[in-house]
Write a structure and sequence with these properties.
With about 60 residues, the chain is mainly alpha-helical. It has one domain. Helix content is about 60%, strand content about 5%. The protein has a two-stranded antiparallel sheet with strand order 1-2. Helix 1 crosses helix 2. The longest helix is centred in the last third of the chain and has 13 residues. It starts with a helix and ends with a helix.
């Protein structure tokens, strides 16, 4: 099942940027994100994110691969 952009947004809601991939993963776990969301975050090609837009861009690239 594909992860929706809304699921990603909910998972990282409230995080302070800039953030590392590890920060995103830990924050998503604290927000009780689904395993699919955590897996997607772990597989993002970028390691550091300046804004939520950077996360969305990396998510879009992940979906296309």
């Amino acid at each position: 099942m594909a992860v929706s952009p809304i699921a990603i947004s909910k998972a990282i809601k409230g995080i302070d940027f800039p953030a590392s991939k590890e920060d995103l993963i830990e924050h998503a776990k604290q927000n009780q994100a689904d395993k699919e969301v955590i897996d997607l975050l772990e597989n993002l090609s970028e390691d550091d994110f300046e804004t939520v837009a950077d996360v969305e861009k990396a998510y879009g690239e992940e979906r296309q691969s």
